[in-house]
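Today's session is about reading a structure prediction critically. Students often jump straight to the picture, but the first step is always the sequence itself: look for stretches that repeat, for charged clusters, for runs of hydrophobic residues. Only then move on to the predicted structure, which in these notes is written as discrete structure tokens rather than atom positions. Here is the chain we will use throughout the hour.
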Amino acid sequence: MRFRRRKLAFHKARRARARRALSLMELVTVVLIIGLLGTMAVTRYGSSLIGDVSADGFARRLSLDCLQARRRAISTGVNHLLRFTLDGGDATQYVLYRREGAGVVQEDDVRLVPSDVTVATGGTVDMEFTFTGETLAAYTITITAPDRALTVTVPQLTGTAFVQ
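Below is the predicted structure for this chain, in token form.
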């Protein structure tokens, strides 16, 4: 009987040790390894990959805003436009407006161009969509990142933006 109690106590102690959580040293080691892997990834891919992802995201955002301007123009019967702010020929931001008489009224927030991306509008300041869904002209916006160039094309007849 005595032997049985010792054996039972031994097994309980063994199970308690097995259930124990990570020690502080083990936790620090895991965090250090993850930090080293993250640092290696950033130095391997660098800022050019981040710029490429920014350019891709900006091109998609711009095409969605073109779609939104087109839909708002059709649904309200009032022309809507994206107005770019140019600095040295490159866009720094754009805003969605609706045409109101001779002026325009801001409809949405200002969209900034990411710092590692260059946006060339070809001198176009306004991309205007009519109440029929067409644009006043065909528009081509070029978005350039360190290792990538994308083009947002908006044909005049359909007014639908394409990212290429």
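Discussion point for the tutorial: The helical segments are 2-18, 24-76.
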